[in-house]
Amino acid sequence: MVRKIVLSFAILCAVSAIQAQNLQLHFDPRNSLYGDDVAPINYLTATFEMFKPDKWGNTFMFVDFDFSFDKRNPGLAYAEIAREFKIGDFPLLPHIEYNGGLGLRGLGGVGFSIPSSYLGGFGYPFKLGNFFMSTYVAYKLNAFQELSHDAQWTLTWNSTLANGKISLAGFLDLWSEDKSFTEGSDAKGKKAVLLSEPQFWYNVTSQFAIGTEVELSYNFVNKFTESKFYAIPTIGTKWIF
Q: What is the enclosing helix (H) or strand (E) of 84?
């Protein structure tokens, strides 16, 4: 059952602090699964995550590096950083966030910038059974060539089972963006983009885990082609600091 917000937030911070930061390495087989239209090769992705709660709220960030360029050099770097603020016993947490990155691999080897996005809204942490969860709704400004004014809803979860041997985590994002970004300046209206990455980990020790992350998406993996759903599982390892 959902508990009092202040208690839920305190529990969430306490649990997350145990795994305040971690480094992950994933083998991504998307070329084998879907061919060259999705990615020219299979590749490794390194992820650094950090969650730091404090008496004023919490900070979360991650950085992804895709080793998808020639000779498995870095081909893409992407980062997100978010901050939530606790205001007394107010049940909602003001939420601000920045997303953006660089594509080091492009056509002809030319790099490119991933359009940044800026979010502002309210978050709500809660507990559901054995799962510590949080959700937020935010206004989202996509910094495309023509600015896109949008909305995003996010749900995150985290749970440890089997006396600490199994960890479940992940997120689900649903947002809108202008069709003109991918379909040309004549395209009108909005389209919805879905991205979810549930994770399953077996904790070999308190610091080392093996497992998988499954990227589930619609209108995301290959935005410049027809709308399509993709499910891309990885094989991963994680070291918890």
A: strand 76-85
Q: What is the pTM of this model?
A: 0.87
Provide the pLDDT for residue 4: 46
The range of the structural domain enclosing residue 46 comes to: 5-240
- Amino acid identity of residue 28, one-letter, is D
The DSSP secondary structure of 125-153, one letter per residue, reads EEEETTEEEEEEEEEEEE-SSS-EEEEEE
pLDDT of residue 73: 82
Q: Return contacts of 164-167, CB within 8 angstroms, 24+ apart.
A: 164/203, 164/206, 165/202, 165/203, 166/200, 166/201, 166/202, 166/203, 167/199, 167/200, 167/201, 167/203, 167/209, 167/211
Count of C-beta atoms within a 10 Å radius of residue 165: 12
201 touches 169 (CB < 8 A): yes
Residue 26's CATH number: 2.40.230.20
Residue 203 CB coordination number (10 Å) = 20
Q: Which residue has the tokens 């360029």?
A: 69
CA distances from 160 to 26, 77, 78, 141, 225 (A): 21, 30, 28, 35, 39
**Which of these, 116, 76, 111, 120, lies nearest to 100 by C-alpha position?**
116
In the chain, the number of structural domains is 1
Residue 11: what pLDDT? 44
Radius of gyration of the chain (CA): 18
Residues 84 and 93: beta-carbon distance below 8 Å:
yes
Each residue of 42-62: pLDDT tens digit?
Answer: 999 999 999 999 999 999 999
